């Protein structure tokens, strides 16, 4: 069995330890209220993502069913095509709503990460 040479020096931190420490420092610099606000926004993102996935899956299922019906009954092609075209904006609206919520969460995170300006005055 080959021997793997140890490259870390005693007292050095590994990648995972360093990452965990950086994460802990990042959490420590935020107030409890900020973290609660971020957590609430993440929960809202998750719920909205579930809703968007559901809406997209439903609309795609309807489009697929209409395509199959069109194959079986070509006389209804124009009507079914129109119904399919109406589903596209519904999918786009669902994605757009999620995008707005996601961008709001990203801007909140950027705001939390922005250094706080000190309010010292010079005389």
Strand content: under 5%
Largest sheet: none
Element string (H = helix, E = strand): HHH
Radius of gyration computed on alpha carbons: 26 Å
Oligomeric state of this protein: single chain
Quantity of strands, as a count: 0
Category by helix and strand content: mainly alpha
Helix fraction by DSSP (H/I, runs of at least 4): over 70%
Number of helices: 3
The parts where pLDDT drops under 50 for at least 5 residues are 1-6
- The rough form would be described as rod-shaped
Gap between N and C termini: 71 Å
**Arithmetic mean pLDDT:** 75
Characteristic terms for this protein:
single chain; 123 residues; mainly alpha; 3 helices
3D architecture notes:
The protein has 123 residues and is mainly α. It has a domain at 32-111. The protein has three helices and no strands. The longest helix has 41 residues, at 32-72. The protein starts with 14 loop residues before the first helix and ends in a 10-residue tail after the last helix. 0% of the residues are buried.
Structure summary:
With 123 residues, this protein is mainly α. 75% of the residues lie in helices and 0% in strands. It has a domain at 32-111.
